[in-house]
Amino acid sequence: MYPFHWVPAAGQRHASLAEKPVGCAYPSGTQLGTLCQQDVVADNSEVAWLWATCVECNREARRLAGVET
Q1: If you count Cβ atoms within 10 Å of the first and of the last residue's Cβ in the chain, which end, N or C, has fewer?
Q2: How many CB atoms within 10 Å of residue 22?
């Protein structure tokens, strides 16, 4: 497993190192920091998972995963 988790927030899919509660997603309203250094509030609605991925979070997540871009 990777140390980060994906979370829809602030109109994009961000990645975070914040501890995730039990379950598959951060509950809506959860405040957390992201790999792009933003403080955001999770939106666990169905449509939020269709938002575009944050470019900065994706870049850092790929670096942490050891995947070349």
Answers
A1: N
A2: 4
Task: Please write down the long-range contacts of 36-42, taking CB distance under 8 Å and 24 or more positions apart.
Answer: 36/60, 38/10, 38/14, 40/7, 40/9, 40/10, 40/14, 41/9, 41/10, 42/7, 42/8, 42/9
d(CA 1, CA 31) in angstroms, rounded, equals: 23
Q: What digits encode the pLDDT tens for the residues 3-17?
A: 999 999 999 999 999
Distance CA 27, CA 35 (A): 18
d(CA 64, CA 11): 23
Coil, strand or helix: which one is 13?
A: strand
